[in-house]
Amino acid sequence: MTLYRKYRPQVPEDIDQEDTRQAISRIISSKNFAHAYLLIGPRGTGKTSIARILAKAVNCVSEKSVETTSPVIPCGICDACLSIAKGSFLDLFEMDAASNRGIDEIRSIREHVHLAPAVGKKKVYIIDEAHMLTKEAFNALLKTLEEPPEHALFILCTTEPEEILKTVSSRCQIWTFPSASPIDIRHALLRVMKGEKLEINDDVVDEIALRSEGSFRDAIKLLELFLQTGKQTVEGLREVLRSVIVTDRLAFLRSILQGRKADALVCLDAWSREGTDISLLTKDLLTDLRACFLHLSGVKQEKGIEVFARDIPLKTILKLMRVAAAASLEMKETPISVLPLELMIGEWDERTLPFVEEPKVLSVVEGHAPLDLNVISNEWKQVIEKIKPKNHALASVIRSARPIALDKETLTLEVGYAYHKDRLDSPEMRALVEETVAEVMGNHIRLRTSLGRPASQRGEPRPVQSDDLLHLATEIFGGHVVVEKGGGD
Fold it and tell me: Which CATH number covers residue 455?
């Protein structure tokens, strides 16, 4: 048995989050116990454990429950509580919707729900990952929730409440779980350590609490992996995590900022070959960049960060944060986890000039007219032409856009289609437009987009070039353009 299963909360006192512990006690003690609950929260925060505690509360046969049919704080030691904990209670039905999405399972529940409980006071149905149910299954469940028998209790657990049919969620009492804080997770780890008679350094416990991303389950799994190393140090934990120490990460970031692509790629390749968790590495890099941003904004940070950030302009850090964040999101969709970071390195010098003097925002630059909306509108064709050799598809997008407002350093572009807005709002495209405007007009601006009417509806028809359509189509649908010459009908 894993430590997580062994030490999952069995009674309210075991719950590691104080607010949740108090809330479940209030709910159990309430005279208005609901017939259906929807438990919402991130993975690993104890939703199914709470569901089982509720099942115990309505079926506990301790001395306190003899004189009442209402739920009681479960004792954890009676036959009902013990069999629910073991998963052998005849009136507890658990369904994993992730693997049983069909309507047949829900129909089976509907057929048997009206039968009296076999051994307990109530039948309890726990549906985990409820958002995975099909629409047909939801509709079948809805009919049961509309007229539930008195002896039935439904508990739905989900990480994605927006996927739950509204008519279903409206018939449930909703309970939202927050992510566990490092303090909550430390409490859980200490509870496990006490039960297992373990002695682990405080810095290791703190590191696990920080690394578990608000999940009790992940924290205890990480503790198990750490114990297998036989080491009692943070270094041993890093071996488990396959993480990179902060000094090496900062050296890696510095090589990117200084344009030493080869050094950065060699370092990244070595980490990847060693089995480093690239997703974790990206998160750590974003944490480092955030620390730099906070330091440069006047929030005191560790000495190592202060030394690293000393020569870097704030705007450079912000740009790298944006592209690193975009790389992190792209990792979820690419089969090669390291690829987004490699692309970030390869394309970085097209986004910013590292370690340069902070650019000054001037209203008038020699050779350029004062920056105002009319100037930008008159020069917009030149901006398009400058972008065209850099990114042909982007040039096609902004050709249909128009500058509509200038507020200090922020330029607002009106675009006619949501797809165009999404493209211009991406960090890469926004940076390219901002840099090209600065190149053409001598002024540094920030770009903002606004969804409006297409150019044709604004009374501004524009000639569409065939090569624009081809490049835009290949970007949207993939593939490449092949031009065949000659031949006849």
Answer: 3.30.300.180
Q: Are 127 and 133 in contact (CB under 8 A)?
A: yes
Q: Are residues 21 and 169 in the same domain?
A: yes
| Domain assignment of residue 309, yes or no | yes
By residue range, what is the domain housing residue 398? 373-477
Distances (CA, A) of 449 to 322, 387, 446, 457, 468: 17, 17, 10, 18, 21
d(CA 250, CA 269): 16
Q: Which of 393, 407, 384, 403 is nearest to 452 (CA)?
A: 403
CA separation for the pair 318, 324 (Å, rounded): 10
Q: What is the pTM of this model?
A: 0.56
Q: Which of 202, 224, 241 is the last residue of a domain?
A: 241
The DSSP output letter for 226 is: H
Q: What is the mean pLDDT of each run of 10 residues along the chain (489 residues)?
A: 86 89 85 87 89 93 66 89 93 87 83 91 93 89 88 93 91 89 91 90 83 84 81 70 74 88 89 82 88 86 74 86 88 85 82 41 43 82 87 81 83 82 79 84 82 63 46 48 46
Q: What is the CATH classification number for the domain harbouring 149? A: 3.40.50.300
Give SS3 for 158: strand
Q: Does residue 169 sit in the same domain as residue 186? A: no
Q: What is residue 40's predicted lDDT score, i.e. its pLDDT?
A: 93
| Cα 260 from Cα 252, distance rounded (Å) | 10
Residue type, 419: Y
Instruction: Assess whether 139 and 80 both reside in one domain.
Output: yes
Confidence (pLDDT) at 242: 64
